[in-house]
Amino acid sequence: MYRTEVPLYGDLVDIVNSVDNTVLSSRGLTKSDLPPRHELERHGAIRLGTAQEMRLISRLFGIMGMYPVGYYDLHMVGFPLHGTAFRPTTEGALRKNPFRVFTTVLRPDLITDVSLRRTSMEILSKRVLFTHRLCQLMTQIESGSLPKESTDEFISESLKIFKWHARSTVPKETYLRLRREHPVVADIVCFPSAHINHLTPRTLDIDAVQAEMISRGLPAKECIEGPPGGRKCQILLRQTSFKALEERVMFVNDAHDLEGTHTARFGEVEQRGAAVTRKGRELYDKLLASAMFQRQGRDEDILTETFKEYPDDWADLRKQGLVYFRYKVAEGSKPPQQEEVQMEELIGSGVIEYEPITYEDFLPLSAAGIFTSNLGESNGSKKSGTLEATTNSRKVLEDLLGCSIPVEMDLYQKLQSDSLVECEKALGVKIS
Ligand code: OOG
Ligand code: NI
């Protein structure tokens, strides 16, 4: 559906495939060397308007095995939104369904103009994102009784939520007033669906994709978000995008509809690296803030220079507790004789091997960069300093979802400790 709606998305996927093929052949590898999920992997993003829409989407994604992970306070970076990422949470589930949706919801309390706030809520209260039929089907599925022949209908009813409509539900004048308040408010409030605003494939080499986008004349964003390029050990997430399309939209009007344009949908691509620990994240945030401060923005040279302080060797990253790893017993290795063995000893003697755990989540500052490059400069209060989310707004979103939102690091921590328990079992020793 999205490829039909945004043909440039198809071009981007083609670029990613050709870049990835080149990377593979340069390493003497083939597609079969990649994890099977690599080519399927996507993340999408939607922006919702009300608490009720957020609750319903949480149920819908839950049915598909996707649960909220991580809290993203976009207010900290100038947008009247907060959100979470719905995604599968276990390795097995991610293997089957490597898909996630960055989902934000409007915070009306952050719309400064009181009358616009009221207008927004009024418009949104009339919107029906979830058809009556879809709600019936969801209730049936949750009680475990969806007949097989209804699954297609479930999918087609669900797709209606995400589809693009080129006809706004409001008069042009209302749209323009909301856009002046904040472009993202207009994007959320003025349309009948929660249109997917981008769908992001994963690549092996984002610098090559960026170069190829530019050489094909795609309107690429100026810089890649995330850690600098040129590192041996990829960490977290690097992302770039092409700018939003200026799309023709019709606005309702008494006599006859009025024409206008709207920019919201864009293309994004990402390269994923290792999940970092809290300590690793603090170092990342600190270095990024320092590089941005020196340059009042992003500059690749300053970024690269600043990030020299971030170790670029897996052994160092592990010893310093900066990255999460999955441990496993090396093939053919013999269990040690003692009952308790030190981890370092087992690694030193090659009994235990380790590999970095992939980061499956997002970065609020990168998200802000992506938002800004597509919606125009944020006009909210841009706060500098750390991006620690305020506990209060997190609690607001959790109450709204009716569940607590796990902190992404806790999930990686668990993967790491589970892998250690597996090693202990396999070797029949206690690892200290
Ligand atoms: C979401 C932007 C955030 C990412 O990859 O960080 C995002 C949006 O534009 O609604 O998708
Ligand atoms: Ni994205």
Task: Give a written overview of the molecule.
The protein is an alpha+beta fold and 432 residues long. The chain has a domain at 2-273 and 364-377: Roll (2,3-Dihydroxybiphenyl 1,2-Dioxygenase, domain 1). It contains 17 helices and 13 strands. It has helices at 2-5, 7-26, 51-63, 91-96, 114-126, 132-142, 151-162, 172-181, 183-189, 206-215, 278-295, 300-306, 314-319, 343-348, 364-375, 391-401, 408-427; strands at residues 42-48, 67-73, 81-87, 99-106, 198-201, 237-242, 246-251, 258-263, 267-272, 325-329, 340-341, 352-356, 430-431. Strand 7 and strand 8 form a beta hairpin. Helix 6 packs across helix 7 (151-162) and helix 8 crosses helix 9. The longest helix is centred in the N-terminal third of the chain and has 20 residues, at 7-26. It is globular. Mean pLDDT is 91; it is low at 378-388. Residues 43, 45, 102, 198, 200, 268, 370 line the site of nickel (II) ion.
